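From the methods appendix. Each design record in this collection lists the tokenized structure first, followed by the designed amino acid sequence. Records were kept in a plain field format so they could be parsed without special tools. The example shown here is representative of the layout used throughout.

RECORD:
FOLD TOKENS (951 positions):
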């Protein structure tokens, strides 16, 4: 991956206008699609498969008057007045009649209707008028809302002085998230941090510009997707928040590496390629972890949450793509003007440079690692204490800002009627077999009223066709109170009893019940999602760092970060600490999907910092000669912790501060649903970056010493090699001048585990070479290694591309023909394989077993080779037991004097335990092609094994 990204970075640097115009075209297309297709967001929450959702669907079919969204207005009489007096009753009833004629209103219920009860408060100080609509709140137009406001305003004018008429309810409880000036403050802070980091105004602005472009594309794509999927109003803001944060950080990582290299004297183009291949590889890996975690939100099985995760992952994916393409392209515009202001020279007389803060910090941490680790763990445990009282619920009008019409109605209703009136429950069931549906519903209503927690049964009636009945229940507690959730469970526990007694299969539903079901399902999904996330971190980090202890410490740190973030959110939104300063409208339960979203997002971001910090430590440890000796390995490991920390602390600190600034900017004036998520992310980032990754992890790594980098041999063999440190890029740079000629095939010390080792080869463009000697397995192993079909060690360059990093290119462009020669049914047709191999202008074709071709096949093969050679230089590597037959084939094809070499003379047979030849500075590491690795110990290969590999 690193070599591919390096090439991409070089190409982008050379063609900056093409890359910039391409991304602007993508922005234009996405923006046009959003304008043409966008249908707006929808805050309707649903959860298929639950009892509450099934009840709502049943009501939509049989009792539409109570299935859609609702609104209400409350009339509060002047002090000392009776709301039942004619001065109030007459204008209210006239308004009810007028409201019934407004488009979309299915029913307007007067509080004085003889069929309803409880709509006038017990002290007769207030009355509620309920309005029922067809469809959900997202389908009700602004014209209908304006007409409602107009009618209520007219009613207010008719009422006696000192009275109030306030409109609210579910229809007006949906707040549309908007941006405010505080989000811009976050960007300003990010810019200041970038200026300090890069010491250049021009370079500092680049991450912001690329991040804003990426966010623009992702926002447009999300709004265009509303034509095909239901997208909640919170989703775009979550994607915006994440897209800005990771977009700035990912560009920062690449730019910081590039700037350091340019300051060290590296050519800008070469530096851009290296930075994209090294830091860009870590960016891609970090981005993939965030994507997996966000897509994992689908674990909860809730459609709107799955959509939220996918939308946020789109924003992150675009941020990654822009980071590895547009960032090097912008560097191409700047060329060498990225060095920034030079560091301040040391004062006169100072013989040694002054130790920086990061060096002093990590020195203190690693000097007393046990004390530091215990302090951090205990401290974060204390911060997590408020999380024990964390309560979850979906948002309602009670969390809206004070002064809004829906919040005012909510508060007045709770004051005069009790909190339960803001979230009534509905019990519904089929009563088609009843001979007395009215009497049945009355009896059922009386039974429901006896359940503890029921304040009142407001309505118990059949529908007009008498096939469905409903019981409207007013709880004693607020919609988001835990006691209301207990009441829902209590009502459901009577299901079998009431079914046996009344013959009605009752379902508890209503929007309050839906919210409770969603909260319950989200709570149940936290454990499996947590296991998924932590298990994923263990697997990914084991692959990346080839260590057991590094993933364990990373997972421990993540757990501490997440519970501490939960504690901070709970302390603010539940306990009320600093609630006024953060403009929290009302303390109480937190939005249900906050924990799972926070777990998913923080996991990906925490892995970012883990990778950037610990990969530098691993690199320094591996390159330290003292790490090879058990006696000095521990000291080398501690040195690597310190040097790796110092080398990456500046960039990680800047990235964490930027993310914190972006997230915390959404808290003071942000949407009520997004506030707890933004605060949790801000707190989680600060805790994870500064306390866990930059304090606890170095302390634990110092305690573990060289044991941190050990891994069982068997596990090391089966793990794929993921190059996130750019080792392949460094190897290509180191071997850029090898072999020093124009050979289309060059090999030094070529080794295929279990088959052959120490083979040296050279093949000039347009030449032909026949390899003979040894057995079929060994010859085929060489042919497959040259064609990049099996992994190999040593130095190997094919058509100018160094293996194994460019194996994918070689496999795609270098033809390989395996001649079986048996003629058995099902055997591959060698001529067809050769025809496929010679398509295009391939510079090299490999033919294994050329002597096995029949006479007729040999003649046809020679003709194909002649035709291919006429289109451009073509080199041929053939293996054969009978070298004469293969040479004759090549001579017929136009190669007058093909070379013949015997493997028996040029290479040794590989023993069962082979060694990797020390051909360059990275050859001691395992070498990977695709997902298979060649390690220092491997079983011998057989011809059958090689056939299975190529298949």
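DESIGN:
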């Amino acid at each position: 991956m690193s070599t591919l990204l390096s090439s991409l970075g070089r190409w982008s640097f050379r063609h900056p206008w093409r890359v910039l115009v391409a991304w602007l075209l993508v922005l234009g297309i996405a923006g046009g699609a959003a304008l043409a297709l966008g249908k707006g967001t929808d805050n309707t929450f649903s959860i298929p498969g639950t009892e509450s959702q099934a009840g709502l669907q049943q009501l939509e079919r049989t009792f539409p008057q109570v299935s859609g969204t609702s609104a209400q207005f409350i009339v509060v009489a002047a002090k000392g007045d009776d709301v039942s007096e004619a001065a109030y009753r007459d204008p209210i009833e006239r308004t009810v009649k007028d409201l019934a004629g407004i488009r979309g209103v299915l029913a307007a219920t007067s509080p004085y209707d003889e069929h309803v009860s409880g709509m006038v408060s017990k002290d007769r100080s207030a009355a509620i008028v309920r309005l029922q609509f067809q469809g959900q709140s997202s389908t009700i137009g602004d014209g209908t809302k304006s007409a409602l406001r107009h009618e209520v305003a007219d009613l207010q004018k008719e009422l006696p002085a000192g009275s109030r008429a306030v409109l609210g309810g579910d229809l007006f409880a949906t707040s549309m998230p908007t941006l405010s000036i505080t989000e811009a403050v976050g960007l300003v802070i990010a810019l200041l941090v970038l200026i300090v980091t890069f010491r250049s105004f021009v370079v500092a602005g680049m991450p912001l510009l690329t991040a804003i472009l990426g966010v623009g594309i992702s926002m447009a794509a999300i709004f265009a997707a509303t034509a095909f999927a239901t997208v909640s109003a919170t989703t775009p803001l979550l994607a915006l928040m994440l897209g800005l944060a990771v977009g700035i950080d990912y560009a920062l990582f690449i730019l910081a590496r590039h700037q350091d290299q340019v300051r060290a004297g590296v050519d800008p183009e070469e530096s851009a390629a290296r930075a994209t291949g090294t830091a860009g590889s870590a960016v891609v890996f970090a981005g993939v972890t965030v994507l997996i975690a966000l897509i994992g939100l689908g674990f909860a099985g809730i459609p709107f949450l799955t959509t939220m995760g996918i939308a946020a992952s789109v924003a992150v994916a675009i941020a990654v793509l822009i980071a590895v393409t547009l960032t090097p392209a912008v560097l191409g515009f700047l060329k060498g003007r990225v060095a920034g202001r030079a560091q301040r020279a040391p004062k006169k007389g100072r013989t040694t440079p002054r130790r920086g803060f990061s060096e002093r910090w990590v020195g203190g941490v690693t000097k007393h690692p046990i004390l530091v680790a215990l302090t951090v763990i205990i401290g974060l445990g204390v911060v997590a204490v408020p999380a024990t009282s964390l309560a979850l619920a979906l948002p309602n009008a009670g969390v809206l800002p004070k002064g809004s019409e829906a919040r005012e109605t909510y508060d007045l209703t709770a004051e005069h009627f009790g909190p339960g009136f803001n979230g009534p429950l509905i019990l519904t069931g089929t009563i088609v077999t009843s001979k007395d549906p009215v009497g049945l519903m009355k009896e059922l209503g009386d039974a429901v009223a006896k359940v503890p927690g029921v304040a009142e049964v407001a309505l118990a009636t059949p529908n007009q066709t008498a096939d469905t009945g409903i019981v409207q229940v007013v709880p004693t507690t607020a919609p988001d109170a835990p006691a209301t959730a207990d009441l829902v469970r209590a009502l459901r526990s009577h299901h079998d009893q009431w079914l046996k007694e009344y013959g009605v299969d009752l379902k508890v539903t209503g929007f309050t019940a839906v919210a409770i079901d969603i909260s319950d399902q989200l709570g149940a999904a936290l454990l499996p999602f947590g296991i998924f996330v932590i298990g994923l971190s263990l697997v990914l980090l084991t692959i990346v760092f080839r260590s057991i202890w590094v993933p364990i410490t990373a997972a421990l740190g993540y757990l501490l970060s997440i519970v501490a973030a939960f504690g901070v959110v709970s302390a603010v939104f539940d306990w009320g600490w600093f609630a006024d300063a953060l403009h929290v409208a009302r303390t109480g339960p937190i939005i249900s999907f906050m924990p799972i979203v926070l777990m998913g997002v923080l996991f990906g971001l925490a892995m970012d910092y883990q990778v950037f910090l610990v990969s530098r430590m691993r690199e320094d440890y591996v390159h330290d000669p003292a790490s090879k000796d058990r006696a000095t390995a521990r000291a080398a490991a501690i040195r690597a912790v310190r040097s790796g920390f110092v080398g990456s602390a500046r960039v990680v600190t800047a990235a964490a501060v930027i993310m914190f600034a972006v997230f915390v900017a959404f808290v003071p004036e942000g949407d009520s649903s997004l506030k707890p998520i933004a605060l949790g992310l801000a707190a989680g980032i600060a805790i994870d970056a500064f306390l866990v990754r930059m304090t606890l992890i170095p302390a634990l790594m110092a305690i573990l010493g060289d044991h941190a980098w050990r891994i069982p041999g068997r596990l090391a063999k089966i793990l794929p090699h993921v190059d996130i440190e750019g080792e392949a890029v460094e190897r290509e740079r180191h071997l850029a001048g090898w072999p020093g000629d124009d050979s289309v095939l060059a090999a030094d010390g070529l080794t295929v585990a279990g088959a052959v080792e120490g083979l040296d080869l050279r093949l000039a463009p347009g030449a032909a070479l026949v390899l003979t000697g040894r057995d079929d397995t060994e010859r085929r192993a060489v042919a497959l290694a040259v064609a990049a079909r099996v992994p190999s060690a040593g130095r190997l360059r094919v058509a100018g591309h160094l293996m194994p990093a460019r194996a994918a290119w070689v496999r795609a462009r270098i033809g390989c023909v395996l001649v079986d020669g048996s003629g058995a049914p099902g055997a591959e047709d060698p001529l067809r394989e050769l025809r496929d191999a010679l398509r295009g202008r391939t510079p090299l074709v490999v033919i294994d077993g050329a002597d096995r071709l029949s006479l007729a096949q040999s003649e046809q093969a020679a003709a194909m080779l002649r035709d291919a050679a006429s289109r451009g230089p073509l080199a041929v590597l053939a293996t054969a037991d009978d070298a004469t037959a293969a040479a004759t084939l090549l001579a017929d094809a136009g190669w007058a004097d093909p070379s013949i070499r015997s493997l028996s003379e040029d290479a040794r047979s590989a023993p069962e335990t082979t060694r990797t030849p020390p051909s360059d500075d990275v050859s001691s590491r395992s070498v990977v092609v695709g997902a298979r690795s060649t390690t220092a110990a491997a079983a011998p290969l057989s011809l059958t094994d090689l056939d299975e590999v190529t298949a």
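APPENDIX NOTE: The radius of gyration is 36 Å.
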